[in-house]
Amino acid sequence: MARLIVTRGVDEGRQFELVDPVVTVGRHSSNTVILHDIQVSRRHLELRANEGGTHHLRDLGSGNGTWVNGRSVLEALLRNGDTITVGQTVLLYVSGGPGGGGGSVERTERVRWVSGAPVPDYPPELIRTIPGEWGSRIFRDPQTASEWVRLRLAGLSMLYEAAEAVSHILDLDQLLDKLLELVLQTTEADHGCIVLLDNGGQLVPRAVRYRPGVPQDREWTVSRTIVEHVLREGKGLLISDVAADERFQSVDSLHRHHVSEVICVPLRGRRETVGVLFVDTQSSLKEVLARDKEGGKFREDHLTLVIAVAHQAAIAVEESRYHQALLQAERLAAIGQTIAALSHHIKNIMQGIRFGADLVRTALRDNDRELLLKGWRLVERNQERIDQLILDMLSFSKEREPILEAVNLNALCEDVLEVVRGRAQEAQVALHWHEGSGVEQVLCDPEGIHRALLNIVCNAVEAVEGRPNGQVVVQTGVEGEEGEWAVIRVSDNGPGIPPEEQEAIFQPFVSSKGSRGTGLGLPVSRKILREHGGDVLLQSVVGQGSCFILRLPLRWAAPEPALAPENPPAPLDPPNVPPTAPSPALSSGQTQP
């Protein structure tokens, strides 16, 4: 029975069986199929049954038209699976004819049970019975089955193992080697190889296997003539007797190496042929004579199985190449993004240097000492920016193992503040230093931590530059339930960072400082801390300020580690907006503008 299924619209999910010879569709209650879509006309279309269970559609002058499979129509012969769009409603047409999808279920209604006489006793040669439990016995012990069944069970087993390998082995070389192993086990071939076509169309062996028992150092030659024939024809090839095959009697290498049987099939994937799978057997004269009596190892069902495995191998090769191409495209895109971001920043730095040089040139001409100093400071500042950029690029471009040594974090922080002091004074930002305890002997890479802290302190100074009473506080201490973390907190009373941007600022080339920032400082700092087994955390409230926390695992330098204080200093509740006049007891090295 044909039917309409509403797949989209206000009546979604409803089904209408097309029982009548003529079925009308519309909003009016007089229609056979009533839809509640206001964009459907009162009498929109009719469906007239044809012989064979299909229907002919005719639009009844609807206001918004009728579409079948996306095309506007006035009349159309419907086929199973067609979509009909009326207004905002989409109907799926399922025919009751051949291919209608419900035929198998509907045909069950035609089955009639009949009662008959007992089965007569036919002679044994006319009928044979098999116990029902033989089915499970065949799988438990295949040797009890006939040769035909055993061969097909072996083929099914190989295909199952091949599918398992494709789904579980991610490395392409390991996968091809495993598939080749399965082929050799099933066909009993002496040698096998998978040869792929590279980007230049050259044949490159990718996987090679010898059957156990075959000398692994024995020379083995793959016939280029056969391989090129298979690639050219695109068909699998089975040669059961190489010596008797007229097509390859001129191939000296086959006869010289006593190759007797060959299977060679193309690796045909979804889109192209990527190579071939080649297996063969080699036989001495005695073995050849014996084979003539008993038959060779390779059969046509072997060829079929090898083609099936070759198809799976080809799909795996295609997928691998697709992912490699995708990675390469992403790599090139990342390089392009990096070059664009760095070029923009370098251009801004060079403009600053050029402007400073112009001021110096003018000052020298006019003998203006004040202008000379101003121009030179501008040149120096942009030179420092270039140095900073280069160091950030080097730090970010490669993984490095921290060179650990005993470091006094308090002394390291004081050194960083000394470097930043001049910049803070120019920006009229107050630096406050709160020295903590328990961090005098911490194992870390002093150069890396110095660089990470310098990046973050400079960011904090720039965040509060130009704001009234701009302040930055640097504080050390020990945190964690068991005092396992050495921390450096850098707090400011700047504008703060919205929650949705707090993770983004740790991504490369994301900067909130416009043309003044490279977007590398914070990613580099976090990378350095994570290389130490720590991290850079952020706590921020918009309008109040931010606190960056550099956490280092507290690894003591002394052989006998000193215990952490029983009551370590409670961590500040960031954002720690410093008071205007910090307590002298806590400001052991403060710098005021």
Automatic annotation (TrEMBL):
Could you tell me the keywords of this UniProt record? ATP-binding, Kinase, Nucleotide-binding, Phosphoprotein, Transferase, Two-component regulatory system
Q: Where is this region: Disordered?
A: 560-593
What SUPFAM superfamilies does the entry give?
ATPase domain of HSP90 chaperone/DNA topoisomerase II/histidine kinase, GAF domain-like, Homodimeric domain of signal transducing histidine kinase, SMAD/FHA domain
What positions does the domain Histidine kinase occupy? 341-556
Q: What class of enzyme is it?
A: transferase
The UniProt record lists the EC number as 2.7.13.3
Catalysed reaction(s) here are: ATP + protein L-histidine = ADP + protein N-phospho-L-histidine
Question: What are the FHA domain coordinates in residue numbering?
Answer: 23-73
Record-given protein name: histidine kinase
Organism of origin: Thermogemmata fonticola
